[in-house]
Design goal:
Elements: H1 2-16, H2 22-42, E1 49-51, H3 64-83, H4 91-114, E2 119-121, H5 127-146, H6 148-165
Antiparallel strand pairs: 1-2
Helix pairs in contact: 1-3, 2-3, 2-5, 4-5, 5-6
């Protein structure tokens, strides 16, 4: 099913993504991917959530690592190309656009958690925390596009906050 979701994101990016200006978005795509890689590195042995394939492609997406790499290299670029490529200029439309993406990502996670069993939460992570995470992540992507150093600084503060909310026991840090 992860293949289906990623294919849908890719098809959406083909239709609605700003491919002509992909180089403008490339640093933000890398920022998005590096953030997820860092999360996977820090929480490798103490995951807050894990992906599993339950319907299709069990032989391809055998574990969390393969699935998360698929998401990083298909879903994240597609998301940035659409989200930033169509980012509105008017203030209320900006807030609405961010809200649409926060809702979309949170809703997809909810369906994947409750009905499709494509994700499992661990160590206190919930859909509520995913909502909070998405409320930070989507504005952060826009900030990164406009002022990357500020986004990196704010991300460090966000990471410290998350590490305080979900402390990793020392025995899980290599």
């Amino acid at each position: 099913m992860h293949l289906v979701f990623n294919a849908l994101f890719l098809l959406a990016a083909v239709k609605w993504g700003d491919w002509r200006r992909w180089r403008v978005y490339y640093p933000t795509i890398l920022f998005f991917v590096v953030g997820d890689l860092l999360k996977n590195f820090l929480f490798h042995d103490y995951s807050l959530w894990t992906y599993q394939e339950t319907l299709f492609a069990k032989n391809i997406l055998m574990n969390h690592t393969f699935t998360t790499l698929l998401i990083m290299f298909v879903c994240y670029p597609a998301t940035v190309l659409i989200y930033l490529g169509r980012f509105p200029e008017e203030r209320y439309k900006k807030l609405l656009w961010i809200g649409v993406w926060v809702f979309l990502f949170t809703f997809v996670e909810f369906i994947n958690l409750k009905y499709l069993h494509l994700i499992e939460h661990h160590h206190g992570w919930t859909v509520g925390w995913s909502l909070v995470f998405n409320l930070v992540m989507f504005p952060m992507l826009r900030i990164h596009q406009k002022q990357p150093l500020i986004a990196w600084g704010l991300s460090i503060i966000w990471i410290i906050f998350l590490l305080n909310m979900f402390p990793i026991p020392l025995k899980y840090i290599k």
